[in-house]
Structures are given as structure tokens and as C-alpha cells.
Amino acid sequence: MSDPAGTVAAEAAPADPGRSRPNLRIEGAVKSFDGRVVVEVEDLTLGEHPVEGLIGPNGAGKTTLMRMIMHSVGLDRGTITFFESGYRSGRGKILSNRPPHAVARLGVVKTNQVIQDFERLTIWDSLLLSVANASDERSYRIYREGGLFEENVEAIRGYLDRFGFENPNGFAKSAGEKKLLDIIRCLLLKPKVLLLDEPAAGLPADVSAEVMRLVKHMATTQNVSVVIVEHDLTVIWSMSDYVHFMAEGSVVLQGDPAWIRQHETVVEKYLGSGHVGS
Q1: Which of 83, 97, 211, 238 pairs as cysteine with 87 (C-beta 3.0–4.6 A)?
Q2: 121, 184 Cβ separation under 8 angstroms
Q3: pLDDT tens, position by position, 176-216
Q4: Long-range contact set of residues 149-158: C-beta below 8 Å, sequence gap at least 24
Q5: pLDDT at 249
Q6: CA 117, CA 193: separation in Å to the nearest integer?
């Protein structure tokens, strides 16, 4: 398997567009820090498959690209556009000129790579806060709290039961609980595109497996487009329908997981020869 050009155009396995799915279209997107280009993506579509993996060595630009999508990191140039019915519909909304909360309101949601939690909120309240509108945080809306509870109690209880939280009225203590709450908060937002940044990190193996089963179910039955950045490649190979490989800030390969994991460029730059076929 040769890689003469090292570009997406030259080395991309054919993608099956399938039914119309929520897409992200990234065009001419560049980000530099201290004069060094860390992301340079000329033309990339995410979300044409139910679950897509985004892999690459440390420093490849994966997390920075995810943050650019959410516009928590601004672009030096280029555009990122969200298409709820696929980019072929031609009806897109530019994300790269909106604040992060407005991006999330459109249905593009990202988990945190670094564990974050509301230290002074109970498990229950931290989940309830995630479904509150900004207007609900104003003092005169305090009487809406009961309505907010009623609207979301079934979904919240479903997640609490599914993941076995023993005391929802207590506080998240372990790193794993805090990581799981961050993921659940994103799921409660009913995303159209879900960006998972190292979702397995910090989670017990059984909890991680249950999260992945749930995410896969949402992707295949609710038409949620999922993109996973993860260094645990067993997650990538088992979950992904399509994989994008980044190196030195650019997406250099795209294709079926089996094709990607055996490609000489991926083996050389990332996996190592011992990984092939394992």
C-alpha cells in the first residue's frame, strides 16, 4: 500500500454517503499558535457515517480541530459549517462566526477532554443545569425550576439508573464519575452531532463499554452523527464506521477502519508494525 502523495484526495477509501445525516463541513481551516501551524484542513466532511473516528499521534491537532468546530478556539482563516440534513442539502449554518453556546444550541455538542464538574452542585442538579436555557438562570425564572424538572426528570432518571449512581443527591467524587457526568450532560442536550474527546479516559472498562453501546445506539437509531477522538484504539476499531487519520495538523488518510489500521502511513507514523492485525 503506497502513499505517494500523502493527501486526502490521493489516499481516501470511498465513502458511502448513506442517508442524509448531520454533517460538518470544514474548508480552508487554519489555526496557529505562536507562529506554528497546528491545524490546516483544506477540505473535510465529518458525519457522513454514524460513528467516525479521528485518530493520530500526539500533537496531530485532533483536539484543536474539535475546539475549532465548537469555536472555543478561533480560526485564523477558513470556515466550518453545520448541515443538519447533510452538506448536499446546501442549507448550512456557519459555526465559525458563532460563540460556543450558540454552536451547542444548534445541536453540535462536545465532551471535555479534561475532566470538569460543578463542585458545589449535586449529581442531580448538575444534570438538570445542563438542560436549562440561559434565560432560566435569571432570578425571576426561579419558579420555572419545577417545570424544568418535569420536562427532563424521565431522561435524567434513565441515565442515573442505567449507570448505577448510588446517591444522585450527593456529589461526584471520583474522576470517573465526573467524566461520566460530563458525557451524560452532553447526551441530555439531544445532540445532532456529538464530538467525543477521549471518552474512555478515566472511566472503568465496564462503564466505558456501556457508554459506547449507548452512543452507538443513538448514532444508528436516532441519526446522531458521532465523531470520536480516542487513544484507546480498541474503541476506535470496534465503534467506527469510518476513520480519519491526522498527522502534523492535516487529515492525510480517510477510510474503512480495517483499511486505515493496515495502511503503511498509519503504521509508520502512529501504530507501529506490532499493531497490525492485532
Answers
A1: 83
A2: no
A3: 899 999 999 999 999 999 999 999 988 999 999 999 999 99
A4: 152/128, 152/188, 155/188, 156/124, 156/127, 156/128, 156/188
A5: 94
A6: 22
For residue 37, CA distances in Å to 19, 55, 136, 198 come to: 35, 18, 40, 23
Does pLDDT of 272 surpass 60? yes
Q: How far is CA 214 from the centre of its chain?
A: 14
State residue 121's pLDDT score. Answer: 86
Place of cell 496531530: 60
**pTM reported for the whole predicted model:** 0.85
- The dihedrals phi and psi of 49, each to the nearest 5 degrees, come to -125, 155
pLDDT in tens, 69-104: 999 999 999 999 999 988 877 789 999 999 999 999
The domain limits of the chain are: 23-117+189-275, 119-171
In total, the chain counts a number of residues equal to 278
- Give residue 144's pLDDT: 52
Fold annotation for 23-117+189-275:
Rossmann fold (3.40.50)
Q: Tell me which residue of 36, 50, 19, 23 sits closest to 257, measured CA to CA.
A: 50
User: What does the pLDDT look like over 109-151, one tens digit per residue?
Assistant: 999 877 766 777 899 888 988 887 655 454 444 445 556 667 8
